[in-house]
Amino acid sequence: MKTACITTFGLLLSSLLSAQAAFAADTDELVKIFIGHCVLNAGRIDKTEAAATALEYEELSEEMAMALAPQDPNVEFKGWIVRDELSSPYALGISWSERDDEEISNCVVSSTNVDTEATLSALHVLIQFDEPRFDHEEAGQRYRIWGTDHITANSFITLIDANKLGIPGGTFSFSAPTEQ
Asked: 22 Cβ partners below 8 Å, 6+ apart?
């Protein structure tokens, strides 16, 4: 398995989801979605996939999957668009990658209709983490990574947004060693 960029925030995904969203997603809802699908299943994204199947989430179109998936096209990726009456649509994706000869499970939630800073603040209350280990901006996109070893060893949260470009929302991911 090749090493993969953990997540990518696609401007295409942002525009595709924005066109479909009728109202702003509630920050609390996105926090629940991210924690429930990603953080509580640390290293067990097979459980996230099982939930998506059981709940009959719609698979992402090829274009949306390309925008949300890791950069490496050889990385196994699955994704869904989740729609309900309570929130705007959001994308959910899972992938497996390799880092330092260890398989990593990645779970990502992306929404264009959420205030990323408010969501990050709400997450910080529930998942205590320090200052970002990495905070870099390039071409209007901001990439941040926080260690979450207190949840599971060698795990981390990533947030990618393009707020500086006036593009709302962002992509939150949780990565952890895959449990066998």
From this structure: 88
Mean pLDDT of the chain: 82
Predicted confidence at residue 85, as pLDDT, reads: 63
Does residue 41 carry a pLDDT above 80?
yes
Classify burial at 157, counting beta carbons within 10 Å of its beta carbon; exposed 0-12, middle 13-18, buried 19 or more. Answer: buried
| Residues shown for the chain | 180
Residue 13 has what pLDDT? 47
Is 95 in a helix, a strand, or coil? strand
**How far, in Å, CA of 29 to CA of 12, rounded?**
23
- What are the b/e assignments for 92-123, b being 16+ CB within 10 Å? bbbbbbeeeeeebbbbbbbbbbbbbeebbebb
User: 36's torsion region: left (phi>0), alpha (psi -120 to 50) or beta?
Assistant: alpha
